[in-house]
Design goal:
Order of helices and strands: EEEHHEEHEEH
Number of helices: 4
Region (Disordered): 1-59
CATH class of the domain at 47-136 and 153-190: Alpha Beta
Organism: Streptomyces zingiberis
Pfam families: HATPase_c_2
Shape: globular
Strand content: 15-25%
GO molecular function, one term: ATP binding
Distance between the termini: 28 Å
Domain Histidine kinase/HSP90-like ATPase: 68-177
């Protein structure tokens, strides 16, 4: 799987998705720490760091691949997979992608991931769009009951993101977006 920038700065994906390693637990995530975040404007990326935009099947494999591709793009941008930023992006991509598959699935429709980096502002913007517009999340996360087996995903997004929300997607559907503090990349620190 590789991507190449187009003239408009978007990435075009070619190839086939990588298969998960036999010993890999796709649900396992690394430790995440809190991050201090400034409130800054988000740009559209740069030619050296083009945004990632890709469409995935509405399946658990599609959600897993979206998360893995986001971590790979973060590595391309200088944030190693084990870094706090890449781990936060993995969770923030994984939760709305899983929700798009579970709650936003419309037969015959895929979901879309867009990931962009504003190095000047130090923010990564994650956008996950699906075709089900009538089911938008509440303005703030709802606490699940003590015995509930699900319902904590948006609590994680809220804890890791500077800000997050949802917006209508035209002509149909919704987009869940979040902005994550990135700070300088490992390459910039050298």
């Amino acid at each position: 799987m590789r991507d190449s920038p187009r003239k408009d700065g978007q990435a075009v994906l070619t190839g086939t998705p990588p298969s998960p390693a036999p010993d890999e637990d796709p649900g396992q995530s690394a430790g995440i720490t809190s991050v201090e975040v400034p409130t800054l404007r988000l740009g559209a990326g740069t030619p050296e760091r083009p945004p990632l935009s890709a469409q995935f099947t509405s399946s658990s494999r599609g959600a897993r691949f979206a998360r893995r591709l986001a971590v790979r793009r973060m590595a391309d941008w200088g944030y190693p997979p084990e870094s706090d930023v890449a781990c936060a992006v993995a969770v923030v991509v994984g939760e709305p992608a899983a929700n798009a598959v579970r709650h936003g699935r419309v037969p015959g429709r895929d979901f879309r991931l867009r990931l962009s980096l504003d190095a000047v502002a130090g923010l990564v913007r994650v956008e996950v769009a699906d075709a089900a517009g009538e089911r938008r999340p509440a303005a703030g996360p709802v606490l699940p009951g003590p015995g509930a087996e699900s319902g904590r995903g948006l609590l994680l997004v809220e804890a890791l993101a500077v800000r997050w929300g949802s917006a209508p997607r035209h002509p149909v559907g919704k987009t869940i977006w979040a902005e994550i503090s990135a700070g300088p990349s490992a390459e910039a620190a050298r």
